[in-house]
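Run C-terminal binding protein through structure prediction, thanks.
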Amino acid sequence: MAKYRIVTPAGASFTVAGGGYALESEALDGLDAEIVEAPTDTAGFIAAAKDADAIYAKGIPITKEIIDALQSCKVITLGSVGVDSVDVKAATARGIPVTNIPDTFIEEVADHAMTLLLAGFRRLIEQDEMVRDGRWKEGRPALLKIPRLMGQTLGFISFGRVARAVARRAAPFGLRMMAYDPFVEEMQISEYGVQPATLTEVLSQSDFVSMHAPARPEVHHMLKEQHFRLMKPSAVFINTGRGPTVQEEALIKALQEGWIAHAALDVLEVEPPSHNNPLLRMENVTLTAHVASASARFDEARKRRVGSELALVLQGKWPMSCVNPSVLQNTQLRRWQPIGMGRGPNS
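Sure, done. The structure for C-terminal binding protein is below.
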């Protein structure tokens, strides 16, 4: 029996063909650790994980019930930026660090956000359909109603790592930029050529509103009907963050009634969406299937980072990225090179 037992739900989420745990295990080599799959139902998972040294969270919610049943767990590790699948409050109460990977695929998500911005602004899907439907002459008149991109305003809601990477990409297009994030110092926002602003200012002045807030309880349905009513009728709303941060019913109403012009979304409130979700049938919506972080390097980089975080904690060291760093002050873990310490999934 291995010295360290890492339990993970059976099956995989955010993975590619091939599966297995060879990449995670690279960092665990020499530690006498094994990754064991457990049933995905709560009772079955608890039975398998109660004596685990670590939890590799994926596929199922790691609830308070599960966390309270853990007797020897030293860390709960996620292979994602978002931590909404883990009850971080419950883990903190038990003194268990929760790690994520906030900096592994920032560039991919930023690329995708800019893709959605440009595709939504230039009505790329509509233009494609016009050509395919033999409506060649309709394309130019449709775009004559749209201003040039240079000089338009891009507003960020939350200004973490992805938003900052988007800002670097948007600057050469001549976009004026502003951001709302009460947790980021104004001077830090200004360093990116972005004007710090209130939420109302971002919503009312922006031609593009790019949502980057993480999925946390305090920002659930952060944007409601009153927020979409503040936006310009010509505005494009972009979301590559998390779907539940937006009250989808209000967004649908905003699109149907013309409060905003277009939505370009990689995330939805419920994924995958129901077949009767109105967004699927709206011409003024561009959709992708929560794929912003995907690239050829995605799975390998993610899995290796998970293995590194597990290995660090099992060796008694601080992890690289911890979303509840206060617990580390009360553990026997050794501070080594605390990159990312104190930064949450929105960093």
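The longest strand covers residues 4-9.
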